[in-house]
Amino acid sequence: MIPIPLMFLPFPFVPVDAQRSKGDGARPRRGSVLRGAQEAAVTTPRKRSSSATRSGAKAAPTPVLTKRELNRALLARQFLLRRTRESVPHVLEHLVGLQAQAGNAPYLGLWTRMEDFQLEDLTRRYEQREVVRATLLRSTQHLVTARDYQSLRPALQPVLDRMFNHSAYPRELAGLDMDALLAEGRRLLSREPLSSVELGRRLQARWPERDAQSLAFVVRVAESLVTVPPFGTWGVGGEVTFTPSASWLGAPLEPALALESLVRRYLGAFGPASVKDMQHWSGFVRLGEVFERMRSELRVFRDEQGVELFDLPDAPRPDGDSPVPVRFVPEFDNLLLSHSDRARIISEPHRKRVFTVNGIIRPTVLVDGFVRGMWKLKWEKTRVTLHVSPFARLTREDREALTEEGLRLLSFAAADASAHDVRFAPVA
């Protein structure tokens, strides 16, 4: 695949207090990262006391889900237990988007989850503005539907606020008229899409004593911006340009998605999960109160370590021994990034091999539902080889299944190559 530049924000990820997001009636707050608003005080939720407990009756034991049962539940909701025939917008909305630092990754993420997915299925929707690529969860680039973006972005703005306020930028820009900066940024971006570098250069022309990168970054965090194709379409790299979402989509942002709705969306795609798991996925903290308010409508379980897990009542929870096909998962996939405890999908020793020190999350291979290796494509003139690096010895049946699935992947990702091959590296 043609290498695609990464789009990380230059500050550490800091979760934000959930109490700062108010719900479906909350209006988007333009430039709120610049206001320095104090976090609302949060009281510790009182311990829940059921009528059965108050009357002295013994409460029924909480069901325990094994690691394999959690694995199968996650795979079922991620369309990795079996591929789906649903549309691209349906899949993106069910998954609450796909991580998109690498431009090709969403294509591969959809291919491994969908029946008969073709490149143009996503490219067409991106070019027609049905889906957008923008800074969202964990302050990283995500591909979401335009409809989802309109309410997700304002819902996640408090997370971006908190991260900005914990960075060095507020100190570097102390004394600057932020309202004037944002107004100028909006004016420049409304005229034409701009890269972050070019935006910073033009802003610095007005504030020459300020750092160009800092000026551009403030506008990118405070304003609702989306990236403009062709960047982000299959195989297209180069410079990323941004434009205001309101002009790109022809409508302003909608009221922020309520935290309760965000909880349901998360559990539908990644449950059963703990409060801490969702906090890791979303960037909010102190979500315990939200889960407590929703307890009566959720199923409650525990994992094998005794951690309380929540789930939607009717969500799929397959048997832990349900058969799972091998899968090739792209880099940066949310499958590996959406739980505090990742044991349901990858072991800690294997995580250290997949997650690099410089923030890269390598493409992975699923065998029996768990990460059992990594993969990469290598071009040699007109020949493309899929290299599989297993973490442990594979059975003959697993190698055959990976070879068959790998050839399908090559037919999708390297259709123009004259020859395809799948090779297995020795176990390291």
Please give a structural write-up.
41% of the residues are buried. This protein has a 5-stranded mixed β-sheet, with helices on one face. The model is unreliable at 1-12, 20-28 and 35-54 (pLDDT under 50). Helix 9 (196-206) packs across helix 10 (212-222). The protein is globular. It contains 16 helices and 14 strands. With 428 residues, it is α+β, with helices and mostly antiparallel strands.
Task: Write a concise keyword list for the protein shown above.
428 residues, alpha+beta, five-stranded mixed sheet, three-stranded antiparallel sheet, 16 helices, 14 strands, 36% helix, 14% strand, globular, disordered N terminus
Poorly predicted ranges: 1-12, 20-28, 35-54
* Beta-strand share of residues: 5-15%
* End-to-end Cα distance: 24 Å
Biggest sheet statistics = 5 strands, mixed
Indicate the mean pLDDT: 89
Main sheet: strand order: 10-11-12-13-14
Number of strands: 14
